[in-house]
Amino acid sequence: DTEVTQTPKHLVMGMTNKKSLKCEQHMGHRAMYWYKQKAKKPPELMFVYSYEKLSINESVPSRFSPECPNSSLLNLHLHALQPEDSALYLCASSPTSAKGTQYFGPGTRLTVL
Amino acid sequence: AQKVTQAQTEISVVEKEDVTLDCVYETRDTTYYLFWYKQPPSGELVFLIRRNSFDEQNEISGRYSWNFQKSTSSFNFTITASQVVDSAVYFCALSEPERSNDYKLSFGAGTTVTVRA
């Protein structure tokens, strides 16, 4: 089973709202990732959690706040977003490091009004 | 500098034609990994293949085949007898674990493949 699930599939929010994106995997992977993808562009790495600790933050604005409650779950908390934050947000997981294959979820399409 | 170059932005073919997607990478590491992902209109990135730098054997999986050539730093992907369901954006990616233990994938810009019935 190489399934990564994400909820919700679509999200529309205003600039003053607070919302969260959720990601789950049950493959026993110890690394989990958040990516942002704009239309017709490759995914851009945002955050990496390794063994439930934040390993990489790619200089992401503080209005995006990641959380890894346990080894299977990854959240992305959103607050005071801007319209330019509208994008596809992809979660991925891999066994451990960059040697391993990253498996991606279906993504959440976020629209910020 | 771009580490992964996919020179073809868009390719359009008629069903049953073969299509080859080019991928050229750049690294100074001896150990590295190359990947291909497919992204259909639904949005999910689907893993297709992972190849490590020490394994230059070409691979075939059904209608898909990959040609890895270290001499030219290329990892090309061919879809044989294309079908409409092959319409997607295809990304080539590189990981360089020697550089640091930083989990990063360097993606190419992607190639949009459209297969017409």
Structure in words:
The complex is a heterodimer of chains A (113) and B (117). Chain A is built from no helices and eleven strands. By secondary structure, chain A is mainly β. In chain A, strands 2, 4, 5, 6, 9, 10 and 11 form a seven-stranded mixed β-sheet that branches. Chain A is globular and about 35 Å long. With 117 residues, chain B is mostly beta strands. Chain B is 0% helix and 49% strand. Chain B has strands at residues 4-5, 10-14, 19-21, 24-25, 33-39, 46-52, 59-61, 64-69, 74-79, 88-95, 106-107, 111-116. In chain B, a hairpin with a 4-residue loop joins β8 and β9 (74-79). Chain B is globular and about 45 Å long. Classes of the chains: A mainly beta (113), B mainly beta (117). The interface between A and B is medium-sized, with 27 and 23 residues.
**Rg from alpha-carbon coordinates of chain A:** 13 Å
Which structural class do you get from the secondary structure elements of chain A? mainly beta
Percent of residues of chain A in helical segments? under 10%
Shape of chain B: globular
Poorly predicted parts of chain A: none
Share of helix among residues of chain B? under 10%
Beta-strand share of residues of chain B: over 45%
The number of strands of chain B is 12
Average pLDDT over all residues of chain A? 93
